[in-house]
Write a structure and sequence with these properties.
472 residues; alpha+beta; 7-stranded mixed sheet; 10 helices; globular; disordered N terminus; binds fe (ii) ion
């Protein structure tokens, strides 16, 4: 039997079917809108909420004086400070001790108005090509600072370089950072510079800047301090941006930072530091990754250290910071970065890279903080070492072919200990932490914020970790 015409199925339209379809679409739309509204209402403050700034009065004498690095280059140091808006032109006198010469830098104020007041920000770049002790004094029309000083070690004859890394400080008002920093600098007076891993302040308000400078007062005028920006240095909003006071205090970023992100590189002896702005938007992160690729390619430094607020390897969730991981981590590996130092997650973690034989390699990724805040951690198999319930700082010493990283709690108990020995073709990694117990218990203040199910999951992950680390 043959069919001579096309045989098509007839589509039957039932009015009830169309009504049901509309009902389902409408219901789904309402549910989605309700869920989105719930999320936005709950997260509004976290995403967009900027706190109101209380009125403040700037001081007539120079204050918030900071010694830092300079965009003019590694042969310069930069001094920044604040004063009231009436102070006008300022001058900074400086001299290399016993040289017999005193130089004067005159500088104009940059008036910054924030919600609660206004102050004048100043910056002076000191040419410091020779090692030695530099004395300096800030002179304003009405008032002047006392003579201050800093030391530049001779990196050609003494090839040991030391620096301290502090992750998030983010102290509360009248916090204890000042005591901690006093102790650190008493233990390590030969430190060459300090690096802060973002969230130096709790919020971009003058009162928190006051607290932050009170915290680092023992070092601020005599050890160079550099910082990367964290989310707490940002003004929130659809177009989030770094609050200008951060850049005015830490002005070593190239003038194009607004387009390219607050990234910069600093070199001290054999160490080159790469500062990244991991809180920036995705367009800036792309630009920063191009900048980083070029900067690392051009680097001839023996030791390369990247600093950014958000680690490529989050210790709070496997889904966090994927943009950072995607854009930056291949560059850290490709260009053989030694350490990647991060913060943000208010716990301690160290993760080494593994080769095909599971041997520990660089890059070494650490997350650290020195703040009163604690977060619950996500325990995974690939992190070598975690730490909870303490504040930490890391001390780095580079001497010739060897770099030593030691992590301490603020009572100076050794918590992590890694040595790198570099030869032209490889970097040997020695992990010396076998005898140091790992602290993983949930701090009480964290446990109080968790639901019973979350605590159970955390404890289960600890048991699994303990099983994996049993001696064979
Ligand atoms: Fe943060």
């Amino acid at each position: 039997m043959f069919f001579t015409g096309s045989h098509r199925r007839q589509k039957i339209h039932h009015p009830q079917y169309a009504t049901m379809k509309k009902f389902v679409i409408l219901s789904l739309t309402i549910i989605l809108l309700a869920v989105a509204s719930y999320i936005v209402i709950n997260r509004w403050n976290i995403w967009f909420g900027n706190p109101v700034e209380s009125p403040y009065q700037a001081q007539s004498a120079p204050y918030h004086i900071l010694l830092t690095f300079s965009p003019e280059g590694d042969d310069f140091r930069c001094i920044t400070w604040q004063c009231d808006t009436l102070a006008g032109e300022a001058s900074l006198l400086y001299s290399l001790r016993d040289s017999g010469d005193t130089a004067t830098i005159t500088t104009q104020p940059h008036i910054y108005h924030s919600q609660g007041g206004a102050s004048a920000f100043y910056r002076a770049d000191l040419h410091t090509p020779q090692p030695g002790i530099y004395d300096y004094r800030i002179c304003m029309k009405a008032d002047s600072s006392q003579w201050l000083h800093f030391t530049l070690h001779d990196t050609t004859s003494d090839t040991t370089a030391q620096f301290i890394y502090l992750g998030d400080i983010q102290d509360t008002i009248n916090g204890i950072t000042n005591n901690i920093v006093t102790d650190i600098v008493q233990h390590y007076p030969a430190t060459d510079f300090f690096i802060l891993g973002g969230d130096f302040i709790h919020r971009p308000l003058e009162t928190y800047w006051d607290e932050a400078f009170r915290g680092i007062a023992p070092i601020a005028t005599q050890y160079p301090v550099a910082a990367v920006s964290g989310n707490h240095e940002y003004l929130k909003g659809l177009n989030a941006s770094i609050e200008p006071r951060f850049i005015l205090h830490f002005p070593y970023f190239p003038s194009s930072y607004l387009d390219n992100g607050a990234c910069a590189t600093l070199t001290y002896g054999d160490i080159q530091i790469f500062l990244l702005d991991s809180n920036a938007g995705i367009v800036s992160l792309f630009k920063q990754s191009r900048w980083l690729d070029k900067a690392l390619r051009n680097s001839s430094a023996r030791w390369k250290i990247a600093v950014l607020h958000h680690s490529p390897y989050s210790i709070r969730s496997p889904y966090n910071n994927l943009d950072i991981k995607f854009l930056f981590d291949p560059l850290f590996k490709k260009h053989k970065v030694d350490f990647v130092l991060a913060g943000h997650e208010h716990g301690y973690a160290r993760r080494t890279t593994r080769d095909l034989d599971n041997h520990k390699q660089t890059p070494i990724y650490t997350v650290s903080h020195c703040s009163p805040k604690q977060y619950p951690l996500y325990i995974n198999n690939r992190t070598d070492r975690y730490g909870t319930g303490n504040r930490y700082f890391q001390q780095f010493t580079a001497h010739g072919d060897t770099m030593h990283m030691r992590t301490f709690t603020t009572d100076f108990a050794l918590y992590d200990d890694i040595i790198l020995i570099k030869s032209p073709d490889k970097t040997l990694l020695i992990d010396q932490t076998d005898t140091i117990p790992e602290r993983l218990e949930l701090p009480d203040e964290v446990a109080q914020r968790l639901k019973p199910g979350q605590i159970h999951e955390y404890n289960k992950s600890l048991e699994e970790r303990a099983q994996r680390h049993l001696p064979i």
